[in-house]
Amino acid sequence: MYKTYLISTFLSESEGTVVLVTDRHLQIIEEIYTHDNQANQASSREAAYIIFRITGDILSEPTVRRYRALLGWKACRTVHCHSVRPANRIKRLEYCLNLQATGLANFWEDCIFTDEASFWLEKHGRITFQKVHRDPHTLKVINTGNVRVEKPKHVTKVHVWGGISVRGPTRICIFTGNMNADFYVQILEGYLVPFITSVYPDGHRFIQDNDPKHTSKKGKECITANSINWFPTPPESPDLNPIEMIWAEMKHFIRKIYQPQNQQELVTALDTYWNSSITPDVCRKYIGHIEKVIPLVIKAEGGPSGH
Length: 307
Fold this sequence. Notes:
The chain is an alpha+beta fold. It has 2 domains: 11-70, no CATH class; 86-125 and 152-299, Nucleotidyltransferase, domain 5. The protein has helices at residues 23-34, 44-55, 61-70, 86-102, 181-199, 217-225, 243-258, 263-277, 280-288, 290-299, and strands spanning 11-14, 17-20, 111-120, 133-134, 141-142, 157-165, 168-169, 173-175, 205-207. The strands form 3 sheets. Strands 3, 6, 7, 8 and 9 form a 5-stranded mixed beta sheet that branches. A two-stranded antiparallel sheet has the order 1-2. The chain has a two-stranded antiparallel ribbon with strand order 4-5.
């Protein structure tokens, strides 16, 4: 059902053409912004052009904006989330339904959530402020042009591997360059296995994403050889790994608070934040957040939860 309004007396004039806005025009506007794709970002000019292509009628942009608002559509900031392919939606839904049926109370007590993230040495804000100058006689604004900030072609960055559990975090591994299967095995043996031995001697579950390096033959052999209890999770599910929120907090700390000026300061900042701020209580708080995410994934039928 499309919302309709009494508009029989309304006329829209554009380029000398007088057009009566009809329910058909309203239906097209509604369809344009109902589509679950990039079409719902159409401007009023683009919407007017679509109406013209379909009906041959010319509606002005103010008219399209007015009736778009009457139909209940308003401009909002776009909030992005990760994409999930149809096949993986089914896997995510089944995974969350099974967890919900099992019961979430104390379910995460023996889980170790791991992941990698990249951190860049750059500070490029989207907004800059510049002094507005006016002509002293006419008081008109003199256009001084946009402020231009140099941006290096190759930005310094480092990568971090880490893990969290309700009993606290693992040590982090900070490295440069690309990670391959051999290097990932070294991380498991040098960082994960000692953590399991000292913190989880009574049993654990190891959670990682489905990156090819993680699921490689060498990775699986290492997991088996070291008796690591890998607990598989569905693909394309960063919202089901609470360490993603830790990475977001660390990036905010790096960008807004510490503001390192070189690679060594960036490494120091990462190490400082991890060792001072990622406490067992913080880990438990973020891990408990999964209990809010699982019902949202189920509600979205396996789609992104928005968290």
